[in-house]
Amino acid sequence: MLMELAFAIEVLIAGLLSGVMYSLVALGFVLIFKASGVFNFAQGAMVLFAALTFVRILEMGVNFWLAVAIALAVMILLAIIIERVMLRPLVAQPVIILFMATIGLNYFLEGLAQGIWDSQVHGLDIGIPDVPWMSVLESTNILISLFDVWSAVICGILVLLLAFFFQKGRIGRALRAVADDNQAAMSVGIPLQLIWAIVWAAAGLVALVAGTLWGQRLGVQFSISLVALKALPVLILGGFNSIAGAIIGGLIIGATEKLAEVYLGPIIGGGIESWSAYFIAMLFLIFRPQGLFGEEIIERV
Amino acid sequence: MEAALKDKAATLLSVNNIEVVYDHVILVLKGVSLEVPEKGIVALLGANGAGKTTTLKSISNLLMAERGNITKGTIEYQGEPIQGLSANQLVKRGVIQVMEGRRCFEHLTVEENLLTGAFTRSDGASLIRQDLDLVYSYFPRLKDRRNSTSGYTSGGEQQMTAVGRALMARPKMILLDEPSMGLAPTLVEEIFEIMQQLNEKEQVTFLLAEQNTNIALRYSHYGYILENGRVVMDGEASALLDNQDVKEFYLGVSGGQKKSFRKVKHYRRRKRWLS
Question: Which residues in chain B are contacts of A176 at CB distance < 8 A?
């Protein structure tokens, strides 16, 4: 009995920890969606682009932190270029047009990343060992991967930093103002271009961290751009415009995925992990389309 | 006195014969010219679709976001051309627009809304604090509601928030678009009263677009009447209030004695400024 309970906890924790990584990817979407109302289809390609840039710079023998700095600089530069070349000419166009533009951007970035670097699988080792957490294993007999814990900590810190940045201060206030009404924000002198560049740079930072962590696990290759797909159910669950929703949605999706695989898998026949999240998302779309924490639509009568 | 004010004061803003085209095809302003003297209150009057909002937006350069373009004419502020300056640069120079329909940031509190108005300022938190208190002194009601989400405040409070937010930028000139929209008459009066005070005490110049001709003319010094994208009449506010045509077309009173409705219509239709 005790063993079973320990196992259940183990599954739950593993799920929650991987959920934090989903949250991180989802957060990239939320940032851009909040500021411009655009669903950024290219977020997955940005993850790939960031990770590939980082790993290739690292492979050149550059110091780890320098490589982080360079990759980050590249992502910021990319954000500025995207704002200049894509967003600025499309200002005041319907949202669907911007969405189509991000689809184009997605394929462009995928091609660009693999064109500049290459399409081989690159191993990435950022120095966090993927071993069980021994002290916990010995005392409670629960197996937790140290890598999961570390990546959860890193994601957690990043999420908190971003949430704080977007909530407080002059820039945070301006970002939320733009999210509410970008024309009115413009009328009080908030430069939309700057805000968009900041938001895309933040999404680039998120992509870099997500890409690095997933890259260590799966190897840096084309398929890590698909982690963006994992963010979709998280977004539907948590709400497209809620930072808190992205975090909690990620945790819920991560945990249910693993629990469903372990406990429902044998009944239905396995493979549940890969689709349970989408099933939950579908239920949410039917019963609560704005998500758990989707911004309430203020209506005055 | 108002006439004297207009003669003496330097021109702060002059719009010279501008044409505005939306979407490359729709001609909305067909040569609008107007002048706003320093520390004046100038009203821009006219019916729906006359071009009031477009005129204001071409001054504050918010047209871009609606795919509008100034194709002809110039706009000068303090003697310098300001077309092509972004809204951000204009706010820094002291021109700010309060948009029609209040447009508060719904999910921000009233105080956060006000603070967004200070975005372009770099003169330090203590001065911004001071101005926040100043805004609260003009709008005591906002102080009571400072921590409420502005989406849930009343229409009047939202209009006050919008004006207060613009004040936080320390503007020389506020382009006030339709402040009376959707507000109870007493509230409208209150808002205009405050506008007058701001004009007198804080030396803010106002260019006001209004459909409510009566109240707008009572509180302003000078007025322009727009019709179909052209200025069809202008003059001292008091003179416009007395003008027979203005009375009939915009104030809804026809000069004293009753006339047959059919007759009036016929006569006026031939006398319309524009076909």
Answer: 105, 107-108, 112
Statement: residue B243 has pLDDT above 70: yes
Q: How far is B240 from chain A (nearest CA, A)?
A: 31
Cβ pair B116:A181 closer than 8 A: no
Mean pLDDT of A111-126: 86
Inform me whether the pLDDT recorded for A134 exceeds 80.
no
Phi, psi of B196 (to 5 degrees): -60, -40
- Two tokens at A293? 């924490």
Condensed to tens digits (0 to 9), the pLDDT of residues B219-230 reads 999 999 999 899
Chain-chain contact of A188 with B90 (C-beta, under 8 angstroms)? no
Domain coverage including residue A104: 2-287
ipTM of the complex: 0.85
CA dihedral for B29, B34, B38, B42, sign (positive or negative):
negative
Q: What's the confidence (pLDDT) of residue B143?
A: 95
pLDDT value at B268 more than 80: no
Q: Is residue A215 a part of any domain in this protein?
A: yes
Residue A132's contacts (CB-CB under 8 Å, 6 or more residues apart) are: A143, A144, A145, A146
Q: Are residues B80 and B179 in the same domain?
A: yes
Asked if residue A294 has pLDDT above 80, the reply is no
At A9, which CATH number? 1.10.3470
Q: Which of B90, B103, B106 sits opposite A298 (nearest CB)?
A: B106
In angstroms, the CA B199 to CA B195 distance is: 6
